[in-house]
Amino acid sequence: MKKKALIFGVTGQDGSYLAELLIKKNYIVHGVKRRSSSINTGRVDHIYQDPHIKKRKFILHYGDITDSLSVTRLINYIKPNEVYNLAAQSHVQVSFESPEYTANADAIGALRILEAIRFNKLEKKTKFYQAGTSELFGLNEKIPQNERTQFHPASPYGVAKLYAHWITINYRQAYNMFACNGILFNHESPRRGETFVTQKIIQAMCRIKLNKQKTLYLGNLYSKRDWGHAKDFVNAMWLIMQLKKPDDFVIATGKQTTVKNFVNIVAKHLGIKLKWKGSGIKEKALDENGRVIVACDKAYYRPLEVNNLLGDARKARKILKWKPKTNLNNLISEMIEIEMSKISF
Ligand code: NAP
Ligand code: F7E
After folding, report:
1. In this prediction, what percent of the chain has a pLDDT beyond 90?
2. For the segment 225-271, what is each residue's pLDDT rounded down to a tens digit?
3. DSSP class of residue 150?
4. What is the 211 CA–ligand 1 centroid distance (Å)?
5. Which residues contact 268 (CB under 8 A, 6 or more apart)?
6. Which residues of 273-289 are buried (b: 16+ CB within 10 A; e: fewer)?
7. What is the Å distance from ligand 1's center to 135 Cα?
């Protein structure tokens, strides 16, 4: 019998890569999409269109993790072997503006799925993966951060994910469920949402290179992130679910870069020479002709910033035998190549 996986958040960056991976591994993949006024399946449409993938291998259902009935109905109907909860309001800055919705989706959403597994008496059959985040470490700047580092979330997003983290552990301990947390550091790809900083920088710099945009406006240039490739990270999710015993893992590259340096690397790839001047909100980067290519705008600063994230994934390396295949330079090349092909299309 083929294994059945259910992915909440299949239309997102990670959901789309995970669906591809599981189909390759011969799973029947069920995905949950939200009803939206415009089409939101752009990241998974190619899976449907692939003539080698039979329609019955990839099935989409409407549902919403803020709607218990739809969650329970889907779990009961599909009776999956593995559930991946990747669904979330995943934007940190937006979580300051929609904190209640973020808590409902990101914290209680995880509870709804766990409870639906229990309610349908699937505790022994169904494994659960929770998409945890390095944002749990937040203001704790002791680096590198691993599974034993104290959490100190610094946004409604981080706080909601903290609940999801602990409720996953609670259901594991109380009901003996196979329920795991992946504590994933930032991971990007050509499928990254346009409002996250890496994709925003790549899109703007490519447009600037082609004279379709003048200036890129950013917030804090000095926050440091540990950026990996989403394709590598979804592989870690699957490995976590194949263990004999459920456990929690930090997944990270172990390399750190500032936002400003990310801009510099992208500029170098595109052959744009940047000269930085000024400081604080007045800091900017000019090109050889003195045109302002990058400037700061206070609209992109957060009420509270997480400055320093760097992951220590030694546990994953040892137990899962996982390590990232793509370095930052190659990730940036791939993102630029795809973006350039979209602009020139
Ligand atoms: P993403 O691209 O923003 O995708 C989020 C997915 O969740 C989308 O499919 C979205 O649907 C869906 N969703 C949002 N609210 C929902 C709701 N109420 N009901 C059902 N589905 C809902 O995020 P991602 O980068 O793939 O990240 C996947 C997960 O990992 C998220 O939980 C995120 O918080 C977490 N995470 C991400 C990173 C990272 O660096 N990427 C790091 C650590 C943890 P629509 O397509 O309709 O919007
Ligand atoms: O910001 C700074 C910003 O929005 C990265 C999510 O996937 O990873 C992601 O959260 C940094 C921050 O990602 C802009 O202040 C400067 O310090 O790309 P981001 P994030 O907040 O790290 C974690 C692990 C998740 O779990 C989340 O789901 O870049 N920054 N200027 C900016 N950020 C944005 N978005 N836009 C700017 O203009």
Report:
1. 96
2. 999 999 999 999 999 999 999 999 999 999 999 999 999 999 999 99
3. P
4. 32
5. none
6. ebeeeeeeeebbbbeee
7. 14
